[in-house]
Write the structure tokens for this entry.
Amino acid sequence: MRRLLVVGILILGAAGTVASVSGDGPTFQFTSIDYPGAVLTRSTGINSEGQIVGRYVDSGGSFHGFLLSQGTYSSIDVPGASFTIAHGINDAGQIVGRYGDALGTHGFVMSGGNFITVNFPGAIYTALAQMNSAGDIAGTYIDAGRAQHGFSLTGDTFRSIDFPGGSFSEAIGINSQGVISGVYSFVTRLETANNNHGFVLNDGEFTSFDFPDAATTFAWKIDDRSQVVGCWTDASGVTRGFLRNRGGSFVTIDFPGTTYSYASAMNEHGAIVGTYIDAGGKTHGYLATRSRLEPNSHEEDLRAFN
């Protein structure tokens, strides 16, 4: 495995707009996340310390990962890579994602300022989506025949994940119990953007789910309560985020005033990160925190929702 050093650190404060909305469940307060000077920002991971990771596009069109920690942005770039994208961060501060070079697209783990390259054996494409506190990883790979699969990595053991009968699968989340969340379809993405479904894989058993009446459903990260965040699109093409509890009920999560937003990850305190597109067409990350709660009451709110 190859170890690389982080370069390109940028230290600036966080800024953004704030709004709040209510729905059938918790009330959230939303704050925009924009990497300084970026033309596009997406936030995709958050840990229990509130550290957020994602990706941004600079004015020259290049993709970079980023870490937002205590109001400070740090750019994440694998040296020599054509692009770097960060997808998830665990409570130890280890970051996973993918990067590209002349040989293709590879997964990476960033730990203690070093990068470790991860490739699914024989794959032409590997991406890491989430690492849990035990170091287990969920991700996606494309094989030599260009079929797409999810996978898990425990220690040095890779396991391919394919929803039964599906044409493609992605493993996107993994919690500390090893429960995996992801997305699958019975048709290829080249045929349609719809007909995608979420799944949870627990102890070898798949559970498929769809947001009610959605044209398509994407499941993203899963937390230790087996709550899943993701997005769904209605028949008119409006995309919204959701939170699905372990009992199977849903809460819609919308960044106010937009027709496109999705939820990417949630930490143990109920804080959610995601992405939205504003009325001018610019893409931003966001942080959604539970509001109108007394101090230390979010745990009771979570138990009520569960």
Summary: Confidence is low (pLDDT under 50) at residues 1-17, 293-306. Residues 298-305 form the longest helix (8 residues). The longest strand covers residues 104-111. The domain at 3-305 is CATH 2.120.10.30 (Neuraminidase).
